[in-house]
Amino acid sequence: MTGTHNRLPGRRTALKLAGGFAAFSALFPAACMAAEAKDRNGKVLVAYFSATGTTARVAKKLAEGLGADLFEIRPEKPYSPQDLDWHDKQSRSSVEMHDPKSRPAIAAKVGNMGQYGTVFVGFPIWWHRSPAIISTFLESYDFSGRTIVPFATSGGSGLGKTESIFKELCPKAAVRRGRVLNASPDKAEIVEWAKSVLR
User: What does 99-154 look like in DSSP terms, one character per residue?
Assistant: First the structure.
């Protein structure tokens, strides 16, 4: 009986292919990182809330570096400068952050959250934790079996109670250790951190 069959590549050809992929990986680490993340976990989403624009800049770098989708967590009622005055105990942000049940409304929802296996969630640190609107976001979807990675910007505080809040609100998700990304980090630094988180 005769027929055709595919020959396996020889040792020399296999080494060339491996070398070519290694070279591609070195030249395009973000592309390889994005492909690896999608293969293992589905698509990647970077969702963020930004009151003054600082967190937005970091989130956009992260999404670009990972080849991820970007979603802004916009409050239904935008925050005014007066709302953000943390010195005023009666300001909107002060009242929200001192009420554990506060859940500010979000203007829009992610179209198809089910397609994302990994979700990076960014925000400014308020009162040593994530803002109340982030709790609204986390409670709006079923994150069971997904990976959630918090990241933040801050004037000097760390993540504080953020990780415990995320784990409490999303008990069936894999909440990874987050990071405060300050001092205008470049895209390469952000991607390297994300890569270490997703290993």
Answer: -TT----BS---TTGGGEEEEEEEEE-BTTB--HHHHHHHHTS--TT-EEEEEEE-
- For 29-198, CATH gives 3.40.50.360
CA distance 190 to 194: 6
For 103-147, what is each residue's pLDDT tens digit? 999 999 999 999 999 999 999 999 889 999 999 999 999 999 999
pTM for the full predicted model: 0.78
The domain ranges of the chain are: 29-198
What is the pLDDT of the chain when averaged over all its residues? 84
